[in-house]
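Table S2 (continued). Query chain:
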Amino acid sequence: MSERATVWTDEADARLRAYLATPGRHIPTGLGTKDAACSVAAINLALTGELSGDVPGCMSKVIGRWIVVTQDKMPDELRNSEGWRALLPLAAGTGREREAARLRVVMNWMWSVLARAQPVADEHGFGGAWRAMCEQRTKDAARAAARATGPAATAARATARATAKAAAKAAARPPRMPPRRPPRGPPRMPPRMPPVPPPGTPRMPQRVPGPRYGRRSTR
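Corresponding output:
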């Protein structure tokens, strides 16, 4: 590790703040690139100019590892928020003199956050294992809870895949037109009206019926 990586200077702090404040700068999951580096990689770029995901010597290893894991799990809008960007310069020069105390703080925070997910665990059928993990706070209890969440996670992924597949199939299908009802019998024509004579036309005399000729009387 170079000497530059063990000392966080004011110049490095200014470079990091300028890097994070660049309009359109995106903090991705994973390592990223020099134009869009992850949280720890951005600190290394400001410190040594190298794209690296290793926690630098000037930074607490506990805090650095927490940042690496947390930033990959949090939503994209939270990872790219102003609050998260403001925390990175503060974490960069924390050093490694108080690691035991920092580890206790991080672990207490983790258990408190996991306990908030108890209603979700109850709903999906692994509430008992989850509650035991949060109460015992041991590796064995955490492994048991991880095994209990396996079937629920598998079912959730299968449901998500089936939903996405059905949505894609529905989007690719042409829209169905409503069926056309066949006409009932031949079309009915409107009654034909006699033509109306124009004004001033003389009227024809009415025909007077003549005598009726029937059978001659025998009388």
